[in-house]
Amino acid sequence: MSYLVLARKARPQTFDEVVGQRPVVKTLQNSLLRDRVAHAILFSGIRGVGKTTLARIMAKAINCENGPAQNPCNSCDSCKAITAGSSLDLYEIDGASNRGIQEIRELKEKIRFLPTSSKYKIIIIDEVHMLTTEAFNALLKTLEEPPPHVFFMFATTELHKIPITILSRCQRYELKRVAPLDLGRHLQRLAEAEGVQIEQGALDLIVREADGSVRDGLSLLDQVFSFGEKNISTDDVIQVLGLVNREVVLRLTRALLDQDPGTAFQALDETFSFGMDLKRFTADLLACFRALILCKIKGCDELLDISQSELALFQELAAHHSTQTLHMKLTLLMQGVEEMRYSGQPRLAMETAFLKVIQSSEVIPVTTLLSRLDTLLTEGATQSIGQVAEGRGVTSELVASVPKKKLPLPPVDDLKVICKQIVEKEEHAESAAAPELPVAPPDQDAIEQNGSAAGVSEADRPLPSPEIKNGPDENPAPRLEPHQRSVRRDWMDFIAYVRERSVWIAQDLQRADSAKEQGHELLLHYQESANCTLLRKDDTRKLITEFVLDFFQKELTVRFVLPEQGSEAVQEGEESPLKERHLLANDPLVQMAAEIFNGRIGDIRVGPRFR
């Protein structure tokens, strides 16, 4: 006697026996009660979720002699014939074997005649997406206006392969994966019906391997029944299905998080000794890290298809690590898995990936690093100011009044200017003199051109007078008037000024490698001529000249300097801008910073205003 596998013996015969798919089942039952059954129905979904089963139950319900009812009676001649597969009015066709236009023509000839013993002729085409384009086209007219005694029912796992002309003529039902809880209850009932006791952990493994497919779960359960006795343990399921023990995967996950290479390599060796497929093993490992990340996200516990005991274990393990750390290690593992798939020595590639994950320390947020850097710069600038002020005899209270928030480390010349302002401020405070009008710092470009020619030394140049206020919240930084602005110092403010009036002009101006004032000209240096093509047009150049006049209060002629014009000569002993960019991009410190922040090097700009 041939053995009937569990997947066939436990096939549902009524709507109430269908596992999951409650919305679809309820819609079909109501359509039967209200006599609103569509002449063409299409069931879609993954393998083993009940597409063909629902089509057969629907066929029995339509032709049931005691119907229409919510469930077929399974006792009349029509229901018995369909259940036994001997009904003359039910044509169940395999779309993969009968996919040509000739088979569709024969089918159209058969449905012209009235049913033999039932109320209607039912046509079930399984894997309908395998039909050829010509076969689909031959079916179009019949499917749109079939004879009144014919119903079509299609089933497919690949809905996207069916022409839209067929889809528009069918009533579609998309079947979802069966929930782990529903599938676990169904398998537990079948095990009790077979007189087999199965542990909850073993049942959870079968449900996880089924991946939402009822037929896969029944096949695995049938295989386990064949191996075990009346009591099935978790170890039996692991041995039969060739799975890696969950404890090994969890031990490896904990070792990667706790930076324990010895335990990680031992767990990997156990996996290799067992003969587990590396692809499946790495998928389980990645699933563990995904579960840890979801445990860190509030409200995402329900997305995990695991038991409550495993969920508690993952929550406890995730509590000791930050989300950034888990995400970083998961990213490194995914990269290692991709390298392993194309490597000639997959085990070595996996061990290398484990070392990368283990040696990656706790991730520090970028905001924390930036705040630390800002603190270092502030302390360095304050210390430099204090040293210079001490030499000038300035009190510590006045040094402390210098603003410290986001203060970069200034050059020595600027420090002299600040200290001079502090000294004059103290003198004015003692004499209680009236506040003077603010005077801007000297124009560095003008000093370079005029001061050096007149023989004025750097130390003898006049320093600006500070703006004195009698209020407690005073800002020692003077406010510059338009006629006191400098191209070298205020270029970025000029870009912001232009952006308020023309965004694209500001963007192209910002691409300039350098901008400097020479005589009555504003020289804009570009390494790529394409970055200033539109700016060199007469109308745009005139508009830029107006912007320069309005902002700097100077009549400057805008001139673009390009490499092909030969105007940008490199002085002896200096590096060209292109070579300087190349050196900066390959600098070890820059490469290390990009690797630490997991970033990449973008635009590199050189010149006086970027230093």
Explain the layout of strands and helices.
Layout: H1 6-9, H2 22-33, E1 40-44, H3 51-63, H4 77-84, E2 90-94, H5 101-110, E3 121-126, H6 133-144, E4 150-156, H7 164-167, E5 171-174, H8 180-193, E6 197-198, H9 200-210, H10 214-227, E7 231-232, H11 234-241, H12 246-257, H13 261-274, H14 278-296, H15 308-318, H16 323-341, H17 346-359, H18 366-392, H19 396-400, H20 412-431, H21 444-451, H22 491-499, H23 503-510, E8 514-518, E9 521-525, H24 538-552, E10 557-561, H25 577-585, H26 588-596
Helix pairs in contact: 3-4, 5-6, 8-9, 9-10, 9-11, 10-11, 12-13, 12-14, 13-17, 14-15, 14-16, 16-17, 18-20, 22-23
What can you tell me about this protein's structure?
By secondary structure, this protein is of the alpha/beta class. It has 5 domains: 6-174, Rossmann fold (3-Layer(aba) Sandwich), CATH 3.40.50; 180-241, Helicase, Ruva Protein, domain 3 (Orthogonal Bundle); 246-359, Zinc Finger, Delta Prime, domain 3 (Up-down Bundle); 367-479, no CATH class; 484-569, GMP Synthetase, Chain A, domain 3 (2-Layer Sandwich). It has 26 helices and 10 strands. The chain has helices spanning 6-9, 22-33, 51-63, 77-84, 101-110, 133-144, 164-167, 180-193, 200-210, 214-227, 234-241, 246-257, 261-274, 278-296, 308-318, 323-341, 346-359, 366-392, 396-400, 412-431, 444-451, 491-499, 503-510, 538-552, 577-585, 588-596; strands at 40-44, 90-94, 121-126, 150-156, 171-174, 197-198, 231-232, 514-518, 521-525, 557-561. It has a 5-stranded parallel beta sheet, with helices on one face. Strands 8-9-10 form a 3-stranded mixed beta sheet, with helices on one face. It has a two-stranded parallel sheet with strand order 6-7. Helix 3 (51-63) runs antiparallel to helix 4 (77-84) and helix 5 packs parallel to helix 6. The longest helix is centred in the middle third of the chain and has 27 residues, at 366-392. It is flat, with a radius of gyration of 40 Å.
